Amino acid sequence: MTRTYTIPLHDPSATLEVVGGKGASLARMAAAGLPVPNGFHVSTAAYRQFVDANNLQPRILAAVEGADPDRPATLDAAEREIQEMFCTAPIPAEIAGAIVQAYASLEGRHPTVAVRSSATAEDLPGLSFAGQQETYLNVSGSTEVLAAVRRCWASLWTARAIAYRKRHSIDQTTVSLAVVVQLLVPADAAGILFTADPVTGARDQALVSAAWGLGEAIVGGLVTPDTLTVDKAAGRVLSPETADKQVMTGRVNGGTQELPVPEELRHAPVLSDEQTADLNRLGVEIEALYGMPMDIEWALADGAFSIVQARPITGLSEPEMPPPANWPMPDPKGHYMRTSIIDLMPDPLTPLFATMGLSSISKMMRRLVKHLFRAPADSLPADVLTTINGYAYYNAGFTPRQLLIMAVKMVPAFPRMLREGVPYWRDVAHPRYREAVDRWQAQSVPQLSAAELLAGAREVVDAVSEHLGSLMASTMGPSAGAEGLFTTVYEKLIRRPGDPDARVFLLGIDNVAIQGEKALYDLAQWVRDRTALGDAIVQADPDELWARVEEDRTPSDIGADDWREWRRRFLDHLARYGYAIYTLDFGQRLPQDDPIPWIELLKRLVSGEGKSPYERQARFAAEREAAVAVIRARLKGIRRWAFEKSLKWAQSQVPLREDGIHEIGLGYPVLRRILRELGSRFVLAGAIERADDVFWLEEPEVEAAVTALETNAAPSDYQDRVTHRRAVWRSARRATPPPQIPYKERYLGLSTEAFTAAQADGQSADVLQGIGASPGRIRATARVLHGPEDFDRMQPGDILVAAITTPAWTPLFAMAAGVVTDIGGPLSHGSIVAREYGIPAVMGAGVATKRIRDGQTIVVDGSTGAITLNA
Predict the structure, then answer these.
(1) Measured between alpha carbons, how far is 657 from 183 in angstroms, rounded to an integer?
(2) Beta-strand relationship, 799-802 and 777-784
(3) Do residues 142 and 23 share a domain?
(4) Distance between CA 789 and CA 146 in Å, rounded?
(5) Would strands 818-821 and 841-843 be described as parallel, antiparallel, or unpaired?
(6) How many CB atoms sit inside 10 A of residue 221's CB?
(7) 389-446: pLDDT as tens digits
């Protein structure tokens, strides 16, 4: 078989697999007529033949096997061993001959070239391998070119390259290396052009860095370059910043060297406005060629620009938009509120949940009215749940007819619902939900058609909604009513000065959140009994530990049996408790997707930092029973009957609420798997860039894309919409949604302060007022967390400040000294869990996450609901 070892730079066959990422990019630009210096590629076939001819691959993989990214010494040892192999192995004659012949074909006698590594896993949209392999400048002569090519091949196996690939789970057996040999541009100046602002994410601006000499001084961070922000459309410099450029990279004796910049050039601008405009035009052309923002390396010689490299900008932040200032009502005569299950939707909703999930829940609520309360379905508005600026709201603008139906049909039905609700949820609704989930979990999702996947997603979403409806009628409502009734009976008829708070009588009762905490504590104790395993887990980086769990890679310093059993137990724990939701929005991740917070808590428990949940629960149970005994001993007659009945009902109902909320997420893992499979197919069809982008489509768009796939047509390109919607979502998240639109002090004769968060415009003083949800007073450091991505910042003794907490937040309560939330009340998840942990909590402060600074010292009074800032 004939192998091609060298290829002209612009050749159409110069693909990623043949010439690597850098080479393929240069070939693409050269073919498009862009000013790319002439040269040639040394193909990956040459690298592989060199390795095969010298039987290096088994020895390379053996050296890499023991390299651990967390142990630098092992990486350095692997690099030294492999470098020695490459230095001593001869280049086969047919490869050396091809390289020498290609070099001789370049313009000039012994032309000066740049020799650049180009890996097959390099300069990809999701990953940047910048700096992982080597570049050699100012190389002249065939012998020196061959030596530089050999050094480039060896640089595929530097310590940092091995570590990078291991951390990003790139198969070491499949990587290969090509080399680009190009005429060296004798640059008067060089630099980098970003076709989008890498800091702000603005796509309408370009950012230019420029310095004297070759570009290595900038790439290596040896010089502070000039920085110019450019209006891309006009090519106009918006903000020039001319630096004091003290060093430059120059050509010296077959290599490069850092040289002092001549005094007259140190403070002089490198580029004129006209040159900057010319460079910007090249950048716009390259961005259009690739269809994405680009990171471009350029050189300037004799007044002409050359492009020496271009790759996608990785980690580019999406453009920021101002948060919404107006909150327009869908119905100008309506009344919209954020309360009840809206507490489970603290953030703006992803478009797919807003259009698929919210509509399903609205339909469910109308069915609930018809079947459970035996009232007409139109007793509720068709859009009983809607969105304003992306946030979920209840449409509480009821007509007189609807209010009459509520009074005549629905209110009288509540006693029956309280009696029948829990058995219905336990024996009918929850088993039906699990049956639907089990049925779809048993499906081989990748084997289903797009239409079947969409049908499955809709079925699971409807099952979620039906289960949620049963919770609202059977556990969430009765639990609130039971606790409210007991509190009223106790406070009005029984409590005397010195008696404990009513909440004491509901402490220490088991629920699924406490069971999950105890299960994790048990796992930690099991680990502690195995010294090597415990030491390794405590010292491990949580992300690396989770990667090893996912890939089933046993660490070298842990016994295989211990590791296998620990991994099994941890995955079982995730399967049982890891579907607890952060929010009701199925577009948001679950603990199962990213269990790093649980691993962090496990590490603390293994190291002995945590406290036993068994001891805490036993202490509260004893306190509860002692309080019950004292009160019971002094009561007689009707007051004792009222106390016993209301207490028994409250104690039986309260844990069911937490159990029910936990079970909301039962179907979310399979639902997300179905939707992400659809997303993967949309990616292959060119409709979106990533599988998770499917959550940023609206349901009709998903349906249209599915129809296109089913008819072998090309779906629409939705990526611009996805990018825009993400930006809108982020801007909306910075806003504080009003708890009511318009604000009313009373609604249906009730004070709205009892069931909605505080208004933002009433929280401007240094003392925020919320609802006291768990008694006690604490002064400590506030830790403002916006979601699971922030969990690793929580430290023991911090006050947890969040928009709302749901069951997935429970691990943080073991570290918290207190809790503050924007929304919620005495019966919300955070309140119940805070009382179980015996820590002060204030709910419904409205603007806590906006007014409280992360790291600020505050005082939380869970009895009065006051939060003192700057304490």
Answers:
(1) 72
(2) parallel
(3) yes
(4) 48
(5) parallel
(6) 8
(7) 999 998 888 777 877 777 776 667 666 666 666 777 888 888 999 999 999 999 999 9
Amino acid at 208: V
Report the distance separating Cα 575 and Cα 396, nearest Å: 38
Average pLDDT, consecutive stretches of 10 residues, N- to C-terminus, the chain (871 residues): 81 88 92 94 94 94 86 88 93 95 92 89 44 77 94 90 78 86 92 87 88 75 82 91 85 77 90 95 94 91 93 73 87 86 90 95 81 73 88 85 74 67 80 93 93 96 90 70 85 91 85 88 94 89 86 82 93 93 92 87 86 89 93 92 91 81 92 96 91 96 95 89 90 88 74 58 74 88 88 88 85 88 76 83 86 91 88 63
The total number of residues written for the chain in this structure: 871
Helix (H) or strand (E) holding 246: none
CA 656: distance to chain centroid? Answer: 31
Mark whether 109 and 243 lie in a shared domain: no
Angstrom distance (rounded) from CA 674 to CA 443: 10
Give a yes or no: residue 565 inside a domain: no
Instruction: Quote the strand ranges of 3-59, DSSP E.
Output: 6-8, 39-42
Number of independent structural domains in the chain: 3
Q: Are 602 and 574 in contact (CB under 8 A)?
A: no
Return the residue matching tokens 């999701």: 126
- 184 vs 250: CA distance, rounded Å: 12
Q: Is the dihedral of CA 270, 275, 280, 283 positive or negative?
A: negative
Which two structure tokens, joined as six digits, stand for 32? 């498009």
Give me the domain span that covers residue 850: 757-868
Provide the angle, in degrees to the nearest 10, between the axes of the packed helices 93-104 and 44-53: 150
Say yes or no: 205 and 189 in one domain: yes
Element (H, E) at 213: none
Same structural domain, 173 and 219: no
Conformation bin of residue 824: beta by default, left when phi > 0, alpha when psi is -120 to 50 = left
> If you write DSSP's letter for every residue of 64-84 in order, what string do you get?
HHT-BTTBHHHHHHHHHHHHH
